[in-house]
Design a protein that fits this description.
Number of helices of chain A: 8
Oligomer: heterodimer
Largest sheet of chain B: 5 strands, mixed
Radius of gyration of chain A: 19 Å
Helix content of chain A: 40-55%
Number of helices of chain B: 14
Number of domains of chain B: 2
Strand order of the largest sheet of chain A: 3-4-5
Shape of chain B: elongated
Order of helices and strands of chain B: HHEHEHEHEHEHHHHHHHH
Distance between the termini of chain A: 33 Å
Helix content of chain B: 55-70%
Number of strands of chain A: 7
Order of helices and strands of chain A: EEHEHHHEHEHEEHH
Structural class of chain B: alpha/beta
Largest sheet of chain A: 3 strands, parallel
Structural class of chain A: alpha/beta
Strand content of chain B: 5-15%
Distance between the termini of chain B: 40 Å
Shape of chain A: globular
Number of strands of chain B: 5
């Protein structure tokens, strides 16, 4: 729903100044989305994928070429340009997916479990990319089940049974000597108990 | 052994819980058997045949009665040769018999008296059936007449046989244009059935939908690319038929282009709709083959005459886009531009295509919610 895939049933949503309900296409132009599953065209080459996504995001002319070249440089894709996306090593698939998602300079980037099934080295590298994007002013929303990853973030929303049961900075969520994982379990148990209480 | 048993059990549970496998296993064979048993009938039971009697009816009542009494031909009376010929051109009747003005006179004078038979040989099968039946009827009538009026060695009815459109009765002339329609269905429907399903399977559809591209644009892009692909193959098939196999092409290329485009518009739309509904490549391929491609072969009137099918199936053939393209392409090759057919069938395809597009757009929208 946040990405504009599903129409909200009620309420309002804005991405920058674009109304998600009235003008979903404009709203989507501000979003970058990287799905959990590798969702690029695996039979197309790396260059074709970059070209395609630049195209569907509405980039054109010399700016388009400039962005593609930037992506190739930042994510070090030059060596693999003509390889089919499906044949890339996992780390490069991730890089390519990320580069396709940020091709159009989105203000908000959604990453749906970007690091599940990725080796620690690639994960580290991936977070470096995420952090450098945050430095340029992009808002990044990450879903993850790695609690150590959650700690890298500025704000965490803890989702349980479809509800955000706690929202805040990592330090607000956990007590002095707790790890994030402990805090997570404590908060959920607390919530579940309260709910049982309410039901009675 | 216990493991195998568990596996088999599991398989059956899956089958019972999955309605699509039941469809393929039960409903599909049922439909196919019904089609094969009833629709493919090369013995044509009621070929629409025009009967024009130019002279005095009284003296040749016996001949008229023989024609009216046959169950093999569906006799339609015409008052003039012109009216019958017009209907033959439009394809309303497949053959016509003309009993000329002086027939009765000449027969009673003990001369050899001609009856003219004109068949629409754009479908050689039907033409041969029709003329064989007509010959049979005339032979019977002749026997009766001779008994009444007595014998004379010159007395008799001679049949003057004319074949329109395909005077050489070459079945290649009518099979190849039909094959083009079938190949167009194959590419337009079977191939497109895979493409949206593939996007959903790989997760690329989500990726696409979060970009600036709208559903409308995504659909149009799919329509267009497969339209171009299919048109290239049309051009290739036409080239093969006309240049290599020397099938005459008598219509206009512009009409051919427009009507092929309309036909593909419908076929591609149906293929994409199947794809959107199934969201699974394998299922989409099977569905397209069974509900799209096979009926196009069997029920479009391309290889098997629609008029010899039972009424329910005849009504059903209207759902198949190829049914409304085959008459046009057949005539374009064999006969030329026959405007009434071109207009009505093209209009039908256009409306059909727009409806399919509307449905597809609606489904694409709806499918997202799931």
């Amino acid at each position: 729903m946040l990405c504009g895939l599903i129409k909200p049933t009620s309420g309002k949503g804005f991405i920058l100044d674009a109304d998600m309900i009235k003008d979903p296409e404009k709203a989507r132009a501000h979003i970058g989305y990287m799905a959990q599953k590798f969702s690029l065209f695996s039979t197309l080459s790396v260059r074709q994928n970059l070209n395609f996504f630049a195209g569907v995001y509405g980039l054109k002319g010399s700016y388009k070429q400039q962005r593609i070249d930037q992506m190739i440089e930042v994510f070090e894709l030059a060596k693999h340009l003509n390889q089919a996306a499906g044949d890339l090593p996992l780390g490069f698939k991730q890089r390519l997916a990320l580069s396709c998602a940020i091709m159009h300079n989105p203000a908000i980037l959604f990453l749906d479990e970007p690091t599940s099934g990725v080796d620690p080295l690639t994960r580290r590298e991936f977070w470096n990319h995420i952090n450098s994007m945050v430095d340029t002013g992009v808002t990044v929303m990450v879903t993850t089940h790695f609690m150590d990853e959650a700690e890298y973030c500025d704000r965490i929303a803890l989702i349980y049974e479809g509800n955000a049961i706690k929202i805040g900075a990592p330090d607000e969520l956990k007590t002095a000597n707790e790890t994030m994982e402990d805090a997570f379990i404590r908060l959920i148990e607390h919530y579940a108990q309260e709910k049982v209480h309410e039901d009675h | 052994m216990r493991i195998i048993k568990a596996l088999i059990k599991k398989e059956f549970w899956q089958i019972v819980r999955d309605p699509s496998s039941i469809m393929i296993a039960v409903i599909l064979p049922f439909i196919l058997i019904s089609i094969f048993a009833t629709a493919i009938n090369l013995d044509n039971n009621s070929i629409k045949t025009g009967l024009v009697i130019e002279g005095n009816r009284q003296q040749i009542n016996d001949i008229i009665a023989s024609f009216d009494g046959t169950k093999y031909l569906d006799i339609i009376r015409y008052n003039s040769r012109k009216e019958a010929q017009r209907d033959l051109i439009n394809g309303h009747i497949r053959a016509m018999v003309v009993i000329p003005n002086n027939f009765a006179q000449s027969f009673m004078a003990g001369q050899s008296s001609p009856i003219q038979v004109i068949t629409d040989a754009s479908d050689p099968n039907i033409a041969l059936f029709a003329s064989a039946y007509i010959q049979g009827i005339v032979a019977t009538a002749q026997k009766i007449l001779l008994e009444i009026y007595g014998y004379n060695k010159n007395t008799g009815i001679s049949i003057e046989q004319i074949s329109w459109y395909n005077p050489e009765l070459k079945s290649r002339y009518f099979i190849l244009p039909n094959s083009i329609a079938i190949i167009m269905t194959l590419i337009g429907m079977l191939l497109t059935a895979l493409v949206i399903a593939r996007e959903w399977e790989r997760g690329t559809m989500e990726a696409l939908l979060t970009t600036k591209a709208s559903k409308f644009q995504i659909l149009i892009a799919k329509y267009f690319s497969y339209y171009v692909l299919a048109m290239i193959s049309v051009a290739f098939c036409t080239f093969l038929s006309v240049i290599v196999f020397a099938v005459p092409f008598n219509g206009s290329l512009a009409v051919y282009f427009v009507s092929s485009s309309l036909f593909l518009f419908v076929s591609i739309g149906i293929g994409l709709t199947i794809s959107t509904l199934t969201r699974n490549q394998f299922l989409a391929a099977v569905t397209a083959a069974m509900f799209g491609f096979l009926p196009a072969v069997v029920l479009s009137g391309g290889l098997f005459e629609i008029s010899s099918m039972p009424k329910i199936i005849r009504i059903f053939t209207n759902v198949i886009p190829a049914t409304h393209f085959v008459p046009v392409i057949k005539n374009l090759f064999i006969a030329g531009n026959i405007w009434p057919i071109i207009f009505s069938e093209s209009l039908y395809l256009l409306i059909y295509g727009l409806l399919v597009f509307a449905l597809l757009y609606h489904l694409t929208e709806e499918r997202l919610e799931r």
